[in-house]
Amino acid sequence: MTKATDMNTRVITQRGLWFEEFEEGVRYLHRPGRTVTETDDVVFTTLTMNTQPLHLDTHWSSEQAGFGGQRLVNSMWTLSTVVGLSVSQLTLGTIVANLGFTEVSFPTPMFHGDTLYAETVCTGKRLSRSRPGQGVVELEHIGRNQHGDVVCRAVRATMVQCRPGRGSDG
């Protein structure tokens, strides 16, 4: 009987990309998508103390907001989920820090029942000048609904580890 921990068993650990593995201009598609529920929206909105009636009050939304009586999904949920959908493919265990966002927009609203799909384009990368073994990777995250409409766009910089034992090639 062979145990799964046998020394001859090949082990693969899921991780994000090392700095050297990011390719400028490549579009990474993150699947599966995520269908947003009313519960997702209400819990996120109340946990973050956002009392905006656009997210919580159907009556107010139907009379004031002009979205056909529907409440909007909290845009911060959308942004968080777009970035979250990218983690297992791009930065799981390889990111050092999120350095910041320079652009964030929400060109189309999301509603309960919409499905969010995410993709990321690597727009640039460079080795860190101050942190050996690490590099800065520029990412453009795009979220689309089930119709292909862009619902979120965010540009961010991340600090990513170089492949262990490397770090001088980029």
TrEMBL record:
Task: Name the Gene3D superfamilies for this protein.
Answer: Hotdog Thioesterase
InterPro entries attached to this UniProt entry: HotDog_dom_sf, MaoC-like_dom, MCH/BMMD
Domain (MaoC-like) ranges:
26-142
- Family affiliation: Belongs to the enoyl-CoA hydratase/isomerase family.
Q: Which PANTHER family match?
A: BETA-METHYLMALYL-COA DEHYDRATASE (PTHR43664:SF1), MONOAMINE OXIDASE-RELATED (PTHR43664)
Q: What is this protein called?
A: Enoyl-CoA hydratase
What organism does the record attribute this protein to?
Answer: Corynebacterium maris DSM 45190
